[in-house]
Automatic annotation (TrEMBL):
This is Sulfatase. InterPro entries: Alkaline_phosphatase_core_sf. Keywords: Membrane, Transmembrane, Transmembrane helix. Gene3D superfamilies: Alkaline Phosphatase, subunit A. Residues 1-28 are annotated as: Disordered. The keyword Cell wall biogenesis/degradation does not apply.
Length: 594
């Protein structure tokens, strides 16, 4: 018998079967037609599985029937190689090739998910940690039990692909070895057809070339991505170590804001689409227009522009660190390198002056957050330290209005209560103005259920939100329809804006300076397949001198940036800000924005 004749062949009547044979043979002997059908079906499924792996795209928009009506050149070369190898080498090569196809398929599926959520492919060097974040998000969205089921299912699928793809290629290799002449002719015919289709530019009905070489291209791109990612680690470490403001003394930093309470606020997923998309813009634009009118009546003025975020659809901390550090932080490794060093951040600049107390309000942080010291924050309040006793709103641990209320109670209001009573700042440590880093999370995916505005005097410990939460929509219901998702996203941005504007109107003073912006655009299902990475940024102040310092920025008056407002990369903001509010002589160092 040939070396591997048993693989896929119909067994002969082997008398060594013992008692089974004596009783009429094995099940396989008694049902040869069924065995033959199963063998053919298994072979066909093996070929289909390999074909799907070779032709699977890494973007959902490319997943069309025409994508699979093609001839993969990798399959032709692979088959030719297996035909010329001796039995042991053939089986080893088939097993390795099958496992490789399984890995490639898993990576392509990860690419599809990352492209849909984050607008980019999966990086095999940096992005494994994000899978854990994804599971946490699912737990908040659909519950721990279902999220665990999804995680187990995803892991089982990955393992199944590795095993089944390996078995499939081994089976096909053995089959070709048993039918070498026919397999050789088939490979030659397919190779000739592939070459002719390439020369003639033959395309499928969907416009994609019939002659495919996508798998090899994807493998090459993966290899280049890994090499580039590893090289980026070393290159970025050198960039992060250099800083034009590193040696600037504190007494020459932020002199134009002395005595002001400065609040930097990020609104989750507040992107350009919220302002310009026909479905979402009417409500959001109305909130911004109304807010501009209200704040103007209260004595405030505002200027707005656009920043291009380093991230899209998620990974908010990359946007936060880019804005604060003046460095382009677009992956997890850069973030780790940055936060492990001493690069000066905007918040750190306020700390260096010694003229401000610095605090962070982080309702989205549920564990320890060692980055607080990197950002130069004297005090950080995470979700457990803000006193909230109400329900979570999916991923968001608390409504934005509550987070701002806690900020007022715990920090911002301390000075102002003393001012109201004595007419001057309180005694140390409250004698210093406050610099705050506030993250608002109510507009975080999945945008259901959503909180509602309540009277500031009714917020209390947050128990008031129990009824609001129960009456809200469920994520699974909202996510059945794309239009509904986009509508709820728009409503979430409106809520965050109303909370922040109402807070400033009620608790702001003539010394309050507010900078608020989005961290990134929402995922592609909301912002669109070809959306930019732009987010709005706004500076609000009561003192005209504060806005006069940025007159050269040419930002749009009001809370809504105009379509022709300047668009800057987010990493250029730190230097622009430190330069604008440094000594009027302009002697503070600055780096021209690219």
């Amino acid at each position: 018998m040939p070396d591997d004749a048993a693989a896929g062949d119909i067994p002969t009547n082997d008398t060594s079967a013992g008692d089974d044979t004596a009783a009429g043979g094995t099940w396989r002997d008694r049902h040869p037609a069924t065995v033959r059908t199963l063998a053919h079906a298994t072979t066909a499924l093996s070929a289909l599985l390999v074909l799907l792996a070779l032709l699977l795209p890494n973007q959902l928009t490319l997943l069309t029937p025409g994508q699979f009506a093609r001839i993969p050149v990798e399959g032709i070369f692979g088959a030719a190689l297996l035909l010329v190898l001796p039995p042991k080498a053939r089986r080893a090569a088939a097993a390795v090739a099958g496992a490789g196809l399984g890995v490639l398929t898993v990576l392509n599926l990860l690419d599809i998910g990352f492209n849909e959520a984050l607008g980019r492919g999966f990086n095999p060097v940096y992005d494994w940690i994000l899978l854990d974040d994804g599971e946490s998000f699912l737990q908040d969205s659909i519950g721990p039990t279902k999220a665990t089921g999804v995680a187990i299912g995803a892991l089982a699928l990955a393992l199944a692909l590795l095993i089944l793809m390996t078995l499939a290629v081994v089976r096909l290799g053995n089959l070709m070895a048993r039918h070498g002449a026919a397999a050789t002719r088939a490979v030659l015919v397919l190779g000739t057809v592939w070459t002719a289709c390439t020369a003639l530019g033959v395309q499928a009905t969907t416009g994609v070339p019939v002659a495919a070489e996508s798998a090899a291209g994807l493998v090459q791109n993966r290899a280049q991505q890994v090499r580039a990612s590893l090289a980026d680690e070393q290159a970025f470490a050198k960039v992060a170590a250099a800083d034009t403001f590193r040696d600037t003394p504190g007494n020459r930093l932020l002199t134009g804001l002395r005595g002001k309470d400065v609040i930097f606020t990020f609104i989750e997923s507040y992107g350009r689409s919220a302002i310009e998309d026909p479905l979402m813009a009417p409500g959001v634009d109305a909130a911004l227009a109304d807010g501009t009118t209200q704040l103007r009546a209260a004595g405030y003025a505002a200027r707005s522009g656009w920043l291009t975020s380093s991230t899209y659809g998620g990974s908010s901390w990359l946007g936060h660190s880019t804005f604060m550090s003046g460095l382009w932080i677009d992956n997890q490794q850069r973030y780790r390198t940055l936060t492990a060093g001493d690069h000066l951040t905007l918040t750190g600049a306020f700390e260096r002056t010694g003229a401000w107390r610095t605090v962070g309000i982080m309702p989205g942080v549920t564990k320890g957050w060692p980055e607080g010291s990197f950002y130069g924050l004297d005090r950080v309040y995470n979700s457990r330290e803000l006193g909230y006793k109400g329900p979570k709103f999916s991923w968001s641990t608390m409504p934005d209005q509550y987070a701002l209320s806690a900020f007022e109670r715990l920090e911002h209001g301390r000075n102002h209560r003393a001012e109201e009573q004595t007419g001057q700042r309180a005694n140390p440590p409250d004698s210093k103005p406050l610099m705050s880093f506030v993250i608002l999370t109510s507009s975080h995916n999945p945008w259901a259920p959503l909180p509602k505005m309540v009277g500031w005097d009714k917020i209390g410990d947050g128990s008031v939100y129990n009824a609001i939460n129960k009456a809200g929509k469920k994520p699974v219901d909202v996510w059945k329809d794309t239009a509904r998702i986009r509508t709820e996203y728009g409503r979430s941005i409106q809520y965050s804006l109303h909370s922040l504007i109402s807070y400033l109107k009620k608790y702001g003073t003539k010394n309050t300076v507010l900078v608020f912006l989005g961290d990134h655009q929402p995922l592609a299902k909301v912002s669109g397949e070809h959306a930019s990475r732009d987010v709005p940024v706004t500076l609000v102040a009561h003192d005209p001198a504060v806005l006069k310092r940025i007159s050269g920025w040419h930002w749009t008056p009001g809370l809504m940036p105009g379509p022709k407002a300047p668009v800057w990369r987010m990493d250029t903001f730190r230097n622009r800000f430190l330069t604008a509010y440094g000594p009027q002589s302009g002697s503070a160092p600055s780096r021209p924005a690219p």
